Amino acid sequence: MNDEIAGRTVLVVGGAGYVGSVLVTRLLDAGAYVRVLDQLIYDNGFALAHLLDNERLTFHRGDMRDRVTFTQAASGADDVVLLASLVGDPVCKRYPELARQVNADAAERIIDTLDTLAVQRFVFTSTCSNYGIHDPASLAHEESELNPQSLYARTKIDVERYLLDRAAQMQTHASVLRIATAYGLSPRMRFDLTVSQFAWELASGRELLVYDADTWRPYCHIRDIAKAVMTLLRSAPEAVRGEVFNVGDNNQQFTKRMIVEEVQKHVPGATVEYRDGDTDPRNYRVSFDKISDRLGFHPDNSVQDYLGALTAAVQAGVFPDVHGNQRYGNYEVRHLG
Ligand SMILES: NC(=O)c1ccc[n+]([C@@H]2O[C@H](COP(=O)([O-])OP(=O)(O)OC[C@H]3O[C@@H](n4cnc5c(N)ncnc54)[C@H](O)[C@@H]3O)[C@@H](O)[C@H]2O)c1
Fold first, then answer.
1. Within 10 A of 269 (CB to CB), how many other CB atoms are there?
2. CB distance 308 to 236 below 8 Å
3. CA of 270 to the centre of ligand 1 (A)
4. pLDDT at 278 exceeding the cut of 80
5. Pocket lining: 233 vs ligand 1, CB cutoff 6 Å
């Protein structure tokens, strides 16, 4: 592994989002020249406000579906990290046509232009949701059968296949990260994700309704997601080209009930109602051995540590007015005609 990030020009598409605003900070800290292409579809430009006077950051407001916009942003970049999409089952369900256009069609068009633009490395961010339902008695690994339960996961799988079919012939070294459900504090918080949602509801004194409490998911801190992307950018090309890596931690997989119990350690007496029969049947545990064995990637953070900080912040009133608020979740898409 050689630290080649300093001095490289990295385009982060979707860099103003929940994961992106943390990744951009880390890339700048590592000495990279960072370009962000983002259409700010949740009016989320505030997430980058504190970085906009960094002389190594260039911000392009624009829609990645537009070929000229993407080409201008990517021209001369060494590496491209694609984060932008309609992220999550609910927003894809609400805007199915946009989800196909952005998550699948535009991502595939971007892949088609990488060689022409002489991009050296490309990282596509996909999701462990692709495993959908997998007997939690065994861990799903990168070769396991995919079992998508949502349009969101289907669009991600379509792009994975498109990329993996071409990766061996491409000049660009392209890889796929299948990322666990994210948690962590970001300039652009998302309280529409399990850990943060449960903590916010309980720490702000609400009653929490939890469906299918004993379904499993893996979780990953956004700083560790950023670290994984940077690990890919630093790794030997032959180790990552055309490869899929799950991103997470074997020891950070929980049922919803386990997360509630962790939150209750910080919010004693918080009340929860459990019910069966959700519309989200996802249930899976995942092996993260490949990225650890091959690339030496190990996460640094835990849900347990995060919950102390988040519940204290919620109780201190740092996050008022969360429900349905664009600032805090992927509810209503704007600026995508
Ligand atoms: N958050 C998670 O739990 C999680 C888990 C697994 C994988 N991922 C993946 O990580 C990536 C980032 O997720 P996130 O949570 O940061 O999402 P996010 O919704 O917070 O950020 C997405 C960003 O993309 C931008 N965007 C959307 N459509 C665009 C377009 N057409 N043109 C330009 N910009 C556009 C949005 O304005 C936003 O800033 C996604 O690829 C997602 O699938 C996230």
1. 7
2. no
3. 31
4. no
5. no
